[in-house]
Amino acid sequence: MACRDTGDDQMIDLIPSSEQGAIAEGVADFLREHFPIDRLRHSRGTVDDNWVDLAQLGAFGVSVPEESGGIGLGVVEDVLVFREFGRHLVSPAAIGTRVAAIAAAANGQEALCRDLLKGRRRAGLATPAGSGVQLLEVGTGDLCVAISGEILQVFDTDQLADREELFALDETLTLARGRLGKAPLITVTDRSLVLSVRLLAAAMLCGVLDVTRDMAVDYARTRQQFGVPIGVFQGIKHPCADIALAAEEAWSQVAYASLMLEAELPSAAFDVTAAKFVAGDNALVSARANIQIHGGMGFTDEVDAQLLLKRVHVLHQLFDDPRLVRQSLLELPLEI
Amino acid sequence: MEFAVSAKDAKFREDVREWLSVNVPRDPRPPITLAGAEQVEFMRRWQRKLFDGGWAGISWPEEYGGRGLSLVEQVIWYEEYARAGAPEAGCLFCSLQHAAPTLIVKGSPEQKAYYLPRILTGEDIWCQGFSEPGAGSDLANISTRGTVECDYIIVNGSKIWTSFAQVSDYQELVIRTQPGSKRHKGLTWIICDMRLPGITIRPIKSLDGEYHNCEVFYDNVEIPVVNVVGKIDDGWSVAMATLSFERGTAFMETQMRLAYTVEKLIGLARLLKGADGRPIIEDGGIASQLSRLRARSASLKAMTYMGASRARNSDMPGPEGTYIALRCGEMKQEVYRLAMEILGPQGMERPVELATQDLVQQYLYSYAATIGGGTSEIRRNIIGERLLGLPRHG
After folding, report:
1. Which residue of chain A is at minimal alpha-carbon distance from B72?
2. B99 DSSP 8-state letter
3. A7 contacts B7? CB cut-off 8 A
4. Residue A9 pLDDT grade (very low, low, confident, very high; cuts 50, 70, 90)
5. Is residue B198 a contact partner of residue B221, using CB atoms and an 8 Å limit?
6. Average pLDDT, chain A
7. Active site residue B246
8. Contact A4 B83 (CB under 8 A)
9. Band of the pLDDT at B394, cuts 50, 70, 90?
10. Using one digit for the tens of pLDDT, what is the confidence trace for B361-371?
11. Is the ipTM of this structure higher than 0.85?
């Protein structure tokens, strides 16, 4: 638990402890080697080859209880790991797999939980669209997670109907239309768990923001025009600064919201919703700026800037329409 | 990453809240006028009250009469201070937020012993003397010169954008003491008594009707050498110590006030009706902007916590404070711009007497938020160059 009584000092510390940092760093090391972003240029819409290895690392079970095969930590450690996922554009199925494992453990379905944690099963995500749902990263044999209000449901492949394959805005992901059956494998009513799903999407957006910043700054430092690096010009330097600020702002809110959620404070719903909105909005604006900074190359399919933009759209839209999120921001109770 | 609560801190918050609820002045802080006497009297009285109540210099070490509160306690204080609607520092900002921290870090024992207690009680008012007509964003381009003659430094030149010079007792004056020196070298940071012969002050009317800034002229002003803070010709490092404070902790309170202002605007939008007879909040555009700003003020608070978390491992706020400063300034303008939209035709009206609590007044004043203390452009340069390592111009 990250919430404790120290007896002498209240504090909100948003810097990872050395143990927390080590968990994130362990995942980051693995991702750097096995999940470079340029892998996506050549493998469109296929499952990452190293998914099983990533699972074996324990990355999906950070907040799954130890007795169910997880690491037994909390959502605070989860957001650190999912930010790393975001940095490497790991499939959003990571969110589905993690939350399906937690739901399975809570529901006493230990075998399923272990299958998910070991990478033998994967869980994609269902988002309401039209009269049915959009199925994101729900491949053959995959499970599927759907959210409605405070209810989280996990469906097995054979509980999906009218499946129709689509071509995704983010071509590196699979997308289909379909209908959810009436008998889900698991149904859990858990406000905190539902909030954690939104927060992890926000954490992944923070990871994308970090890459966006680094990519923009790298290019501004190295690309030469008029005999100097273009980063000399304020027309380039200032957008870079804005991206850095956007990343700082989004991560601060995500980190803060993770602590509030872990402590189960009443304002957690607002903080998580704000985190998702700010991370999505900032990532979108920054992805656009990064393309602009890259000039003509930014418009091509050959530079990764476009991958970031498309992934941001997917994560921003995940679970809730940003338009509706904005509305709920005005209604949720908040403590200042 | 950790969130820890303690009974001790809950008690501290309770104490702060109770003291403020009894002691915060009911009247709003008067605006800063040409002569400025009303605000000075108001703020001196308030600072004295804080001092008597044991709430002056909360961040100062105890050896200088402060409370030596932890960062968390300071955050609680600022939160409660803003919640209680207590007066913003105004004419005491420079003494409390610039001069004192600088003297504590760089002042001589004699300077600390004399000036710090007078600052703490609100007896002395200070102003800054950094910017010049030829040294605005380009702060190192200072040309006001000081010539050392025996025990005095003779100062000639002029400063501009000096806030509260018309009511100040002392000034943090930065002058060029090494003839022919360039940029950051050869500068000296000196305490200037504003009543010395040869000083002329011209208050400048701001676009909001207040007199926030002054121009100050120095004609053979003789300042004792003992007033130098740090060493002669080493003023830049002293000035930088002050500026990094400005970009750090000083924004906690501003950020809290912004959060309250957003809530106030939501209330106002529910209350006010447009010419069509419908509550303003029912306008989708307004509602959308309000929710956006509500989320943004939450993330600004989170950024403040992030800054405080980093500062815990360092004596001085890092350059990351620039993120908060930049966001604060721009958000202030967004918030008050939206206030004007909500007010509609009411925003065209102003009270006969200037009033700091007037939303229109605050809207007009918000134009300073992206200029004073470092323009947004300079702040973006700092982020780009110092934090991201982008190349400097030329």
Report:
1. A11
2. I
3. yes
4. very low
5. yes
6. 93
7. yes
8. no
9. low
10. 999 999 999 99
11. yes
Per domain, the residue ranges of chain B are 7-120, 126-233, 247-387
**What is B247-387's CATH number, 3.30.360.10, 1.10.1270.20, 1.20.59.20, 1.20.140.10?**
1.20.140.10
Per DSSP, the three-state class of A50 is coil
How far apart are the C-alpha atoms of A18 and B46, rounded to whole Å? 44
Query: Which pair of tokens denotes residue A27?
Result: 């995942």
> For residue A269, which of A187, A189, A150 has the smallest C-alpha distance?
A150
Structural tokens at position A166: 């689509």
Please tell me what DSSP assigns to residue B155.
Answer: E
pLDDT tens track for A222-245? 999 999 999 999 999 999 999 999
Contact call for B6 and A5, based on CB within 8 A? yes
For residues B163 and A79, give the distance between their C-alpha atoms in angstroms, rounded to a whole number: 44
d(CA A77, CA A17): 10
State the Cα–Cα distance between residues A158 and A308, nearest whole angstrom.
33
pLDDT band for position A164 (cuts 50, 70, 90): very high
- Per residue in A10-49, pLDDT (tens digit) is 578 899 999 999 999 999 999 999 999 989 987 666 767 7
Instruction: Give the closest-approach CA distance of B125 to chain A in angstroms.
Output: 32
Show the tokens assigned to B97.
């937020």
Catalytic site residue from B79, B172, B210, B246: B246
Question: Could you tell me where the DSSP H helices lie in A119-233?
Answer: 191-222
The structural architecture, per CATH, of the domain B126-233 is Beta Barrel (2.40)
Cα torsion angle, B163, B168, B174, B176, sign: positive
Residue contact A17–B393, C-beta within 8 A: no
The CATH class of B7-120 is: mainly alpha
Asked if pLDDT for residue B21 goes beyond 80, the answer is yes
Map out the domains of chain A with their CATH numbers.
Answer: 191-331 (1.20.140.10)
**Can you tell me whether residue A195 is helix, strand or coil?**
helix
Q: How far is B8 from chain A (nearest CA, A)?
A: 6
CA gap B249, B59 in Å, rounded = 10
Distance CA(A229)–CA(A222), nearest Å, equals: 6
DSSP codes of every residue in A56-112: HTTTT-TTS-GGGTS----HHHHHHHHHHHHHTT--THHHHHHHHHHHHHHTT-HHH
Q: Is B368 helix (H, G, I), strand (E, B) or coil?
A: helix
Option in A7, A251, A329 nearest B6 (CB): A7
Contact A14 B4 (CB under 8 A): no
Residue B298, min C-alpha distance to chain A (Å): 7
* Residues forming beta bridges with residue B162, ordered by sequence position: B214
Task: Map residue B173 onto helix, strand or coil.
Answer: strand
